[in-house]
Design goal:
The protein has helices at 4-17, 42-49, 94-98, 171-179, 185-190, 200-210, 223-242, 327-333, 336-348, 359-392, and strands at 22-28, 54-60, 63-68, 73-77, 83-86, 113-121, 124-131, 138-142, 278-282, 285-289, 305-308. It has 393 residues and is of the alpha+beta class. The longest helix has 34 residues, at 359-392. Pfam families: Fapy_DNA_glyco (PF01149), H2TH (PF06831).
Length: 393
């Protein structure tokens, strides 16, 4: 989902290519999700914007808008997959275009468009389009004076933007919010009524820099930890916005560069300094963190499930193994004494030869197998203890 930095990038391009121009023509599809769920429609949008001059463009967290020379004004949210495209410009970040096929790069209008605008000024025309494949984005019309748009819904219900609203987003503001709530700190950061613009990757990045456990309750941190968190929010958000969300320019030691490998082959599995990464899942929300750095110093939310981020760059897995093993488990498995034990068990499990004494031989064999199986069971229990100890550490 586009977050604070990606929205800042889009608004940057809108200010360069759209502000000051008049919307000569508009088209919009009738989409019951993108338009309908916020009380408007494609035809209503077209009617409202056609012929209007764009005076300015603004942003607050994950929302952005165009102020026209006459209300209503379009206020937009990208949801999971929305974006603004400008013909002849690459408005998206590098990774966006890496996922596109060569023949899709110059197609206009782009696939999955919801509205298109043709803007003119001094004989020049600019074409823009709002796209959204998954249709979680929203385009609404807000009928209000342009200069007061942030005093109206949906913007008024959202918290301060850490970059835009430096006078509102203060250290004392953050501490007051943390002390008055009893929720995991990651959940507080993602709450748009508290802080606008922080999503999953920014939240994980901020907590990594702060060395805070993502599921620890927000009111159980010290004043020093709250101060560190405040500074980290300002640093991460400001830096990402200054770079217009271009991850190619993010510092190499940022968590962002390593956090995307869950469930995929070739995942990094660790930071550049060798620190291992893991994922926490609680209530359907997933966080990436560094367990040895972000240790809990208070209570955490119940029901947290931890999943290590496996890496192709670590010790190679055995081809015969069905489950990943830790380095320690593999080391123990390869020791001569363990191999000897396994050989003894395997030999003793071979079927007994038939004998005229029959029951006597079978009875003796059963006794030997029962005795030999005990060391193997103990070995399995010890290995299990080692594995569980790793997850708890």
């Amino acid at each position: 989902m586009p977050e604070i930095a990606e929205i800042a990038r889009v608004v940057h391009f809108l200010r360069l290519h759209v502000v000051g121009k008049t919307i000569a023509a508009a088209q919009a599809v009738e989409d019951a999700n993108v338009f309908g769920k916020v009380g408007t429609s494609g035809p209503e949008f077209v009617k409202a914007v056609t012929g209007r001059k764009v005076l300015s463009a603004g942003t607050q967290g994950k929302y952005f808008w165009l102020v026209l020379d006459q209300p209503p004004h379009p206020v937009m949210h990208f949801g999971m997959t929305g974006w603004i495209h400008i013909k002849g410009e690459q408005t998206a970040y590098t990774n966006y275009y890496k996922k596109m096929k060569a023949d899709e790069m110059d197609v206009w209008p782009p696939k999955f468009w919801k509205f298109q605008l043709d803007l003119t000024a001094k004989g020049k025309t600019v074409n823009i389009a709002f796209t959204d494949p998954r249709r979680f984005g929203r385009v609404r019309l807000v009928d209000c004076p342009g200069e007061s748009i942030r005093k109206y819904s949906p913007l008024v219900e959202n918290g301060p933007d850490p970059v835009v609203d430096t006078d509102m987003f203060t250290e004392e503001y953050l501490k007051q919010k943390m002390r008055s709530r009893h929720v995991p700190i990651k959940a507080l950061l993602l709450d748009q009524t508290v802080i606008s613009g922080i999503g999953n990757w920014v939240g994980d990045e901020v907590l990594y820099h702060s060395k805070l456990h993502p599921e620890q309750y927000c009111n159980e941190f010290s004043d020093e930890q709250m101060h560190t968190l405040y500074e980290s929010i300002r640093y991460v958000c400001r830096f990402a916005v200054d770079k217009l969300g271009d991850s190619d320019e993010f510092p190499q030691n940022w968590l962002f560069n390593y956090r995307w490998g869950k469930g995929t082959k070739g995942a990094a599995g660790q930071l550049s300094n060798g620190e291992k990464l893991a994922f926490l899942t609680v209530g359907g929300r997933t966080s990436c963190y560094a367990p040895n750095i972000q240790k809990k110093t208070g209570h955490i939310a119940p029901g947290v499930k931890e999943e290590p981020l496996e890496s192709d760059h670590e010790v190679p897995k055995s081809k015969k193994a069905t489950n990943p093993k830790t380095k320690m488990a593999k080391y123990k498995e390869d020791q001569p004494q363990d191999k000897k034990k396994r050989k003894m068990v395997e030999e003793n499990k071979k079927p007994a030869k038939k004998s005229k004494l029959g029951s006597t031989k079978s009875s003796e064999h059963a006794s030997i197998v029962k005795t030999a199986e005990k060391p193997a069971a103990t070995t399995e229990i010890d290995a299990g203890r080692r594995r569980s100890g790793r997850l708890q550490g």
